[in-house]
Amino acid sequence: MYRNYLKRLFDVVSALMVFILLSPLFLILCLLIKLDSKGPVFFKQRRIGKNKAEFLILKFRSMRTDAPKDQPTHLLKNPDAYITKLGKFLRKTSLDELPQLINIIAGQMSVVGPRPALYNQDDLISLRDEYKANDVRPGLTGWAQVNGRDELPIDIKSKLDGEYIERMSFLFDLKCIALTFRSVSTAEGIVEGQSSNTLEREN
Known about the structure:
Layout: H1 2-21, H2 23-36, E1 42-48, E2 54-60, H3 85-93, H4 100-105, E3 110-112, H5 122-130, E4 139-141, H6 154-167, H7 170-186
Parallel strand pairs: 3-4
Antiparallel strand pairs: 1-2
Helix pairs in contact: 5-6
């Protein structure tokens, strides 16, 4: 019942409520981004959604417009050269992810689920097929994100995504959300720059 019907209702209601409550913050961040550097307020990137359908994920732009767009930040040799001054704060606090509330309302994402892979992350997409993690909407946060985030290698991340699929329930989603607040408050698991152990920190 929850997986097929109530989860989507929870997504829409919660995303709308948060969007309305944080609308003043959205406007302030939009203004600050425009003042901080040249370029659009939002960053759009091709991602893999439910049933491997592509969609454009939304983020507040945290990098300069000349930054590589389709490469995880952890693969950049010097990501600090591309991240804007305000962007450092946005990424550390995960405020850059807030526009994904729009993706949730539009039905492209869920509040909780596997983080959407880049369209060209074939290895991650393939591993997720084994765990049926491509069969659900990707999430703003997820079980893998609260258990390591950027520090996780792809095989471990995929297993955790599969574990989420098996344990998916309203209470488990609430647990993931609660643990997300803890991770965000401590900036736990965020890695910028090349590392052999990291999977992603998307642009």
